[in-house]
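Good morning C.,

I know you're traveling, so I'll keep this short. The sequence:
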Amino acid sequence: MKDNWVNALSMLHRAFLKLSFFFEDINTLDNTSYSSLEQYFSTQSPFDFCVNCAAYTNVDKAESDKEIAFKVNADGPKYLAQLCKNFNVTLIHVSTDFVFDGKQTSPYKETDTPNPLGVYGASKLKGERNIQEFMEAYFILRTSWLYSEYGNNFMKTMLKLSKTRDEINVVADQIGTPTYAGDLAEAILKIIADKIIHYGIYHYSNEGVVSWYDFATAIFDESKKDIKVFPIKTESYPTPAKRPGYSVLDKTKSKFRLKIETLNWKDRLETILYKLKK
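The C-alpha cells, ready to paste straight into the viewer:
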C-alpha cells in the first residue's frame, strides 16, 4: 500500500508541474466581500478550480463572535459558489467534522444528518448548504483534527508546552482522527490533476481512531519528550464551545469515487516529527 502511495505521489508531482496556481490570503483577498471576489475572478479568469481553505477556526471565540464567524464560514462560500458558477469554475471547499454532534459510535458517513453543537460547526454547515444551493460543480471535503509543521495546531502546541512543563492534562473522552494537512492538500491536488467530476460531499482524514490524550502521548513519545500526560474528562476542562465526543469520519466514498488512499495517522505523525527534528 505504501509503495502504491509513493508511486501515486510521483505521478501527481509530474501532473502538478503542468499546473499554475494563484495563492491568496486574508491580506490580499477578502472572502466576505462579494465585490472584491468578483473583481478577482474577472481579473484572473479563466481558471478551472477554486480551492477554498479560508475559515474562521477559533471554535471557542466563535461563540461570542457569531456574526464574523458566519460571514467568513457561510457568506464567503456562498459568494464563491455564485462566482464559480458564473465563471464556470469547479469549487473545492474544506469543511469540518464539527458539523456533527458526536453522538454516534460508528464513523460518520456523508449521508448522516449533521447537527452541530456550536457556532463554528453551524457556520461551516451553513457554508456547505450555501454551496449546494448555488452550484453543482463542487467538492466539499470534511476533515478532522488538522495539524502540520506550519501555523498553530495541537501538535505544535504540545511540543511548545513540553519545553516548559513536565506534566500535562489532556482530554481523553473526545475521539477522532488526526489528519496531516499535507495529505489533505495531496488529496485536493489529486482531484484537480485527475479532473474528477464526481461532485458532492466527501469525508477525508487519516486512518485510525484515537483520543486527544492518545494523540498527545504519541507526540511526546515520538519526539522523545520526557513529560507525563494525564487523561481527563471533557467536563474537567470546560470551554465556551462544546466539542463532539466522537467525530471519526468514514472515508469509503472518497476511496471508491475519488480513488484517494489514506494513511495511518501515527505513520504520518512519525514522518512529520522526523522532518521537524531535521
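Safe travels,
E.
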